[in-house]
């Protein structure tokens, strides 16, 4: 028994949608292959604490320099280290723009 591709996809619109989907899958796979070595996982910190959450640079003070370091890490300009994660202001294990805003809020109230 012979079944043509046109009988499976009766309209050109469905055939175009299938072709576009296939192109998207192939291109996503290609991008994933190219970027596979660029991801740097950070292990969880099992023990230890820092006296002042938010003191990213470790100078003993929470100031504007800590905010700058957090923003540089969040944007990928600086690599994140386990010591940086130990100073995470909200202890969620990631240094984000929200952490920088939290410190700026605290600094503005001083």
Please give a structural write-up:
The chain has helices spanning 5-8, 12-34, 64-74, 82-86, 97-108. It has 110 residues and is mainly α. It folds into 2 domains: 5-38; 41-110, Orthogonal Bundle (Type 1 dockerin domain). α3 runs antiparallel to α5 (97-108). The longest helix has 23 residues, at 12-34. The mean pLDDT is 79.
Topology record:
Elements (H helix, E strand, L loop, with lengths): L4 H4 L3 H23 L29 H11 L7 H5 L10 H12 L2
Helix/strand order, N-terminal first = HHHHH
Helical content class: 40-55%
What's the CATH C level of the largest domain?
Answer: Mainly Alpha
What average pLDDT do the residues reach? Answer: 79
Question: What is the CA-CA span between the terminal residues?
Answer: 81 Å
Helix count, per DSSP? 5
Main sheet makeup: none
According to CATH, what is the topology of the largest domain? Type 1 dockerin domain
What structural category characterises the helix and strand content?
mainly alpha
CATH homologous superfamily classification of the largest domain: Dockerin domain
What is the count of β-strands? 0
What value does the Rg take, in angstroms? 24 Å
Tell me the fraction of residues in β-strands, as a range.
under 5%
For the record, the CATH architecture of the largest domain stands as Orthogonal Bundle
Overall 3D shape? elongated
Residue runs with pLDDT of under 50 for 5 or more positions: none
How many discrete structural domains? 2
